[in-house]
UniProtKB/TrEMBL annotation:
Keyword check for Signal: no
Gene Ontology terms describing biological process: asparaginyl-tRNA aminoacylation
UniProt organism field: Candidatus Gottesmanbacteria bacterium RIFCSPLOWO2_01_FULL_39_12b
Compartmental location: Cytoplasm
EC number(s) from the headed UniProt entry: 6.1.1.22
Name recorded for this polypeptide: Asparagine--tRNA ligase
Domain of life: Bacteria
Entry's family note: Belongs to the class-II aminoacyl-tRNA synthetase family.
């Protein structure tokens, strides 16, 4: 059954002066005896419903007085503009029906709760206004990624979750027993997308990926959502441009479609509005020099850690690409720079405001012999990569791609302290419940 004719709170501005019915939950109650203010949410928005004693039958008003936090209700009444009400609208209630009375005192009260308590109650915490806003923004980001890529001739193909071949090194692999054989949970669908470009040209996936990361930081999850994109006949420079356009497209969409949600999160969206392309590009070597100047003792040849990324980004208001990492510290599939063979044609996109790497990608090695040499150098079992090597035997072409970490991007857009708030049910080093 289509839902199009139902009233949702997000459309309140179109129903001023009309009688409406809202089905939802009571998240706040204020009472002055003869007037009760029920703050309602219906999933799409929030409103204040004002119940005046004389306007209801005695029986109905007695029912209203029973309502506790998180009780589910159906409310009928007149929708009015009311400047003093939070949100600017109000329902003058004619009838309230209790659908389900909350049985016990709701554990998440008005007082401040610590992160541990909130994470244990994540299933309830999701109902809070802030978490609602984050879920809505996450959805808008996902929607705009899909939209942008489809418009840019990428098609979505989905990569498997179970794989015999490591994509991003062996240290963060989750091993599983696949009916007596060793298998891994996917760290990234990239290698499979590289196979699919020979069928469809440009493609992407959007899956949860898993990494047994021992790092307990504000930016790391064990399970997170990654969008991998891959394109045939696209070189290093072009894949950076695609990423720039994608990021601007997403920001633009969120700024335009999620104003009230960004406001609710107290996110200054002006900062996001100022993001423009092209994003500055610096080489890894330049990044190391800048960091050393800033007092870091980082040495050429080590990967940029969280603190290095933050320190570097304190000096940029735009996202920046760090390019040309030493091939040694990048994955086996990276193509080498033609001029300096010790460098990989890879790039990390770092977000400003301390959010670190939001995408990683580059051009892939398309030569069979060079790729084979790299696989051997990494001491991977050739048998597990034979299928991947096949791609370089039959019509191999220059190609590039990147992976975008959804939670990192959402954390930056919402300016959150920790990525754990950007995913409905975070999986972290010390937590996989609820
Ligand atoms: O840089 P990564 O490891 O790149 C890849 O996996 C490539 N195979 C992607 C590709 O080229 N198709 O991961 C991509 C992005 C990072 O830039 C980061 O934003 C995010 O995934 N990411 C994480 N997000 C949350 N928690 C973690 N533990 C993450 N590890 C990476
Ligand atoms: Mg990376």
């Amino acid at each position: 059954m289509s839902d199009n004719n139902k009233f949702y709170l997000k459309d309140s501005n179109k129903y001023i002066g009309k009688e409406v019915t809202v089905k939802g939950w009571v998240f706040n109650i204020r009472s002055s005896g003869s007037i009760v203010f029920l703050h309602l949410r219906d999933g799409s928005g929030f409103i204040q419903a004002t119940v005046i004693k004389g306007e209801l039958t005695v029986k109905d008003f007695t029912e209203v007085q029973k309502i506790t936090l998180e009780t589910a209700v159906e409310v009928k009444g007149l929708l009015r503009e009311e400047k003093r009400a939070p949100g600017g609208y109000e329902i003058t209630v004619k009838k309230v029906q209790i659908i389900s009375l909350a049985q016990e005192e709701y554990p998440i009260g008005k007082k401040e709760h610590g992160p541990d308590f909130l994470l244990t109650h994540r299933h309830l915490w999701l109902r809070s206004r802030r978490q609602w806003a984050i879920l809505q923004i996450r959805n808008e980001v996902i929607k705009s990624i899909n939209e942008f890529l489809l418009k840019d001739n990428f098609i979505r193909i989905d990569s498997p979750m179970i794989t015999p071949s490591a994509c991003e090194g062996t240290t963060t692999l989750f091993e599983i027993d696949y009916f007596g054989e060793k298998a891994f949970l996917s760290q990234s669908g990239q290698l499979y997308l590289e196979a699919a470009i020979y069928s469809v040209g440009r493609c992407y996936d959007f899956n949860p990926v898993l990494r047994a990361e021992k790092s307990k930081t504000r930016r790391h999850l064990i399970e997170f959502w990654m969008m991998d994109a891959e394109a045939a006949f696209v070189d290093f420079g072009e894949i950076l441009e695609i990423q720039e356009e994608l990021i601007l497209y997403i920001l633009n969409h969120v700024i335009n479609n999620c104003r009230n949600k960004l406001k609710l999160l107290e996110r200054n969206s002006e900062i996001l509005t100022m993001i423009k392309s092209p994003f500055p590009r610096i080489t890894y070597k330049e990044a190391i020099k800048q960091l050393q100047k800033l007092g870091s003792d980082i040495k050429y040849g080590t990967d940029l850690g969280n603190d290095d990324e933050t320190c570097l980004m304190n000096h940029y208001k735009q996202p920046i690409f760090v390019t040309h990492f030493p091939a040694e510290i990048k994955a086996f599939y990276c193509k080498k720079d033609e001029v300096d063979n010790s460098l990989a044609l890879s790039a990390d996109l770092l977000a400003p405001e301390g959010y670190g790497e939001i995408t990683g990608g580059g051009q892939r090695e398309e030569d069979y012999q060079l790729l084979l040499k790299n696989i051997k150098k990494h001491k991977y079992d050739i048998a597990d990569y034979e299928w991947y090597l096949d791609l370089r035997k039959y019509g191999s072409v220059p190609h590039s791609g990147f992976g975008l970490g959804l939670e990192r991007l959402v954390a930056w857009i919402c300016k959150l302290d920790h990525v754990r708030e950007t995913i409905p049910f975070p999986r972290m080093l010390e937590r996989f419940r609820p």
